[in-house]
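Entry:
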Amino acid sequence: MTQRLLLWSGLDAWRAEVARVELLPGGLRAGGTQLGIEPLAYRLEYRLEAPDDFVTRRLELECAGEGWWRCVTLEHDGAGAWSCDAEDEGEVDLASAGGEAFALGDALDCDLGFSPLTNTMPIRRHRLHEREGAADFLMAWVSVPDLGLHPYRQRYESRRNDRDGSLVRFVDKGLSEGFVADLELDADGFVGVYPGLARRVSRATGRR
């Protein structure tokens, strides 16, 4: 088991995320915090379980801001069925939390809004960070900070692989169809740079 502590900063808005990841022989577990100010200030805490073949089994989310709070638990039974439980408190100008789990169909992965972490699972499962190839996915996308659940079609295409990392192209085939971003990944398949969204923060990049 490999343990990583990953930090990202937003490129499109002020945002910060830290994740503690356990990289397992066939999957991962992670817990993290995301802070943001768009469309309003929020703090998001999450726990992710994808221990077998990088398939999401459970995603627990809790998001809060001034005068409001909401949480969502998303689960996959390993046989194709999803469930989603949502709670909320307070009045806030956001869409409702949760959604219809049956709309996720045969999706295997969650995708957490603004988070570069969840790009890793489909890439690792298909080894796109190590070899040539491409694959299409239906994702269980959770928008942030409202925690709404949405089906989301995406495609990943391997562009370059070497011992120091890789370049994998993300193609939006649903929410913003036609959007393309070339993700810079490290050797473990974690995002270093997601153009227009986030950049990994290190001791070197954090210096002023």
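The chain has one domain: 2-83+96-200.
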